Amino acid sequence: MKTVILFDTEFIMGSGSKELIRLSALKLDADKLVVNNTFDALVKPEQTKELPDSFIRLTGLTDQDLASKGIPFLEAWKQFVAFDERYPCYSYSQDQAGVSVLLGDGAVLRENLLAHGLGNEFVKLEFHNLFPWFLEMYKKYGYIYSGNVSTGAITTFLGLPMPSGHEHQSLFDVYSILLGLRFFKEKGETLPF
After folding, report:
1. Which of 32, 68, 78, 127 is most buried as measured by Cβ atoms within 10 A of its Cβ?
2. What gap in Å lies between CA 10 and CA 129, rounded to an integer?
3. What pLDDT is stored for residue 103 in this prediction?
4. pLDDT 10s digits, 41-84
5. What would the pLDDT profile of 139-152 be if each residue is shown by its tens digit?
6. What CA–CA distance (Å, rounded) separates 174 from 9?
7. How many whole angstroms separate alpha carbon 142 and alpha carbon 123?
8. What is the pLDDT of residue 179?
């Protein structure tokens, strides 16, 4: 059985960097697209004293959530690496659709590792961006991509039932990616991993 990790991040734009606030992931059987395990961590920000109102509206997270359930970034990273077990990691980033591992949600993790003086830790995992594959599928099946289909909006864009939760909750967003992958797999498409 081939295993892959689907993941998504929520972050705050700080002074030129992206401070991680939430990291969620699914461990999948890559052939059957069956979820074998889930990961969801809230991360206490170190640079940001209070969450901006816009972030609270977008994600539903509050300062109280982070105070009561959040863990330090380094603990979240350790837990994620243990969860990952060195399987390839895939996210969906339309803003940075290149193939470099330094782009997309992987870049958020890398920036946070660098901020903690642990840039070398980044190479422990292998990161990929699914957006170019999804964009190819959108075009192939006649979906008009107008430049804004965020991770959590994949299901809406494809007319699929929504997972529970709401867009910009990273676990919801990861399930949205999964449902999009299943949709195109059912059409006979070869998966991108």
Report:
1. 127
2. 16
3. 62
4. 999 999 888 999 999 999 999 999 999 999 999 999 999 999 99
5. 999 999 887 888 99
6. 9
7. 37
8. 97
Among 90, 83, 82, 81, residue whose Cα is nearest residue 6: 90
Joined together, the tokens standing for residue 34 give 């069956």
38, amino acid identity: T
* Closest by CA position to 77, among listed 16, 124, 35: 124
Interacting residues of 83 by C-beta distance below 8 A, sequence separation 6+: 5, 25, 27, 37, 39
For 43-106, give the DSSP string: B--SS-SS--HHHHHHH---HHHHHHH-B-HHHHHHHHHHHHTT--EEE--SSS-SS-TTSTHH
Give the DSSP H/E element, type plus range, for residue 8: strand 3-13
DSSP-derived 3-state class of residue 11: strand
* CA-derived radius of gyration, the chain: 16
